[in-house]
Structure formats: structure tokens, C-alpha cells
Amino acid sequence: MTKLARLVFFRLGADEYRELGARDAALGVLCAWIAGIGRYWDHPTAGAAQKSGLGSVVYVFALSALLWLLLLPLRANRQKYVTLLAVVSLTSPLAWLYAVPVERMYPVGVAISLNLWFLAIVACWRVALLARFLRRGANCSAPRALVLTFLPVCGILVVLQQLNLEHAALQLMAGIDRENPIEHVNDATHTILWVVTSLVGPLSLVVVPSYLWMVVRSLSGRDPDAHWRPR
Hints:
Helices cover about 70% and strands about 0% of the residues. The chain is mainly α. Helix 3 packs across helix 5 (about 55-70). The chain starts with a helix and ends in a 12-residue tail after the last helix.
């Protein structure tokens, strides 16, 4: 638990990241399962599959696999899958914030606004934790860590856009009832999505070519990160 707290509060060092193993990953998966259950425990219309919490478990395994694949061509930054699974899943306690039953404490409009704030805080915190791991644990230079942090984020958002699921995903994660939304909250979600989707296109045009260039340099043996180590 001490290691988990140190990770969540940006205190793990480079060697400690590399020492993360199967036991840490198992604890992280347990935390992800609890987070998945907590997301829906008081949701009146959630199905059995949602209340089981397995969706969050699948998510951490899938995101870890994506990161493993992205790092695989970068010889200086490759990581063991179990290490990535531990890093990703041990951020799950942040998502326990979604389990706070604000709907029972405040009017519906205030509760949904709070859930949107919870979503923003947790998302930004977890992205920052990923960036720190890439910088310290995976030996990435600052530009490379930045590209590898935003590449999966852009990929997920682009897939949601192509499938026209971005509204549903935001409403689901923020606990918004799509059948009975209130007007100002509905306007807020549209504003958030407009800002995010407006940024993802230009950002993708930067991070995707940058990643491909890094792969080419790594495979050609001219990788500057091969000689870089975190301080």
C-alpha cells in the first residue's frame, strides 16, 4: 500500500518503477475492479455486467497492452507488460472518487456538475502519472514522454469520434442520465466535447508523425534516448 500511495502522489523513483511486478499488478487489478463496482453501485439502471466492475478490469489490461505495443519498437524504452499493467492499474484508486454518492447529497444539476469535475480531475491526474512513469520509469526524454502520453489519448478519442460514441462515453463516465438530462448540464457536456474534439485533430497531426519518426530512428540505431537516463 505504501508503494501504491507513492505512485499515486508522484513519489516513485526510476528504480522503484522498474521493480513493479506481478504482485503490484494483482493489487492494481483489484483496485480497478473495486473502482468498476463503485462507478455503478448506486446507478438505478445499470445492468449486471456494469455492476460487476469487469469493464474497468478489461480497460486496464487493454490500455497496458496498447502502451506495451507503442513502446515495443522503441528499444531504449521497452517495458515488461506486467510493469505497465502495474503502473496503469495502480492509478485506479483515483477513480474511487466516482463512487461518492453526490446524487444523494445534492440536487441533480449540482451532482452532475460535480461528477464532471471528478471526471476531469481523475483524467488529468492519471495522464500526469503516465507522463511521469514514461519520463522516470521508461527512460524517456521529455519530448518522447510527451508524445507517448498524448498518443493513446488521441487514439482513444479518434476511435470514439469515428464510432460517434464520444457523447455516450462522456455521459456514461460522468454519470449523466441520457434519457433525462437537464438543459444546462447537457450544454456543458457539448461544450466540453467541442473543446476536446477541436484539439484532438491538430494534436494528432503532431504526435502521430513524431511517434513514427521516433520509431524510424530507433530501428535505424540512431535513437537519442539510448544514451539518456533519468536523474
